[in-house]
Amino acid sequence: YAPTRCAAAQTSTEQGVLPPCRHHEAVHDPQLVPCTCPLFSCPWEGHLEVVVSHLRQTHRINILQGAEIVFLATDMHLPAPTDWIIMHSCLGHQFLLVLRKQEKYEGHPQFFATMMLIGTPTQADNFTYRLELNRNQRRLKWEATPRSVLECVDSVISDGDCLVLNTSLAQLFSDNGSLAIGIAITTSKVHSAEDEM
User: Fold this and answer.
1) Which of 21, 45, 116, 178 sits CB 3.0–4.6 Å from 96 for a disulfide?
2) pTM above 0.85?
3) CATH of 64-187, one of 2.60.210.10, 3.40.50.720, 2.60.40.1400, 1.10.760.10
């Protein structure tokens, strides 16, 4: 388990409001990407190769190792909006798990979980991720292709291309306000077939 909230949760009262999606803003150098951490309004820009070191050093984001891990998000009762994030290193790449609690409809908070590859969209297409909740003889799985951090996490959530839980469903899988999310990442079958040729 990775019991962490520094892996990070930050509420609206700590940060004001969620930072705007900078994916749509003009970037002077197409080689530079903005900070991918949804917790902070960070003006940093850099090359994709140094995103991981920026997240670790500046935002103190933890990295978990291995193809299969369990991330423990604590304090699920915090008011929306709140984000929990962790980096996951496996198969020679780094991924960013974003779990967000936000109200899509006033008074109805929901939880949104997605994996983002710290890489290009073409690289992201080579992987499949699985998020699994398992508690009290209940199991819920979500499997998808990760999106690239070059895409905006806000867009992924607003598109609904992620695991979505309403509050009552999240409570079925939580234990004393904590939600354990099993994470597994594999190379996609399409990619594996191409490698064999």
Assistant:
1) 116
2) no
3) 2.60.210.10
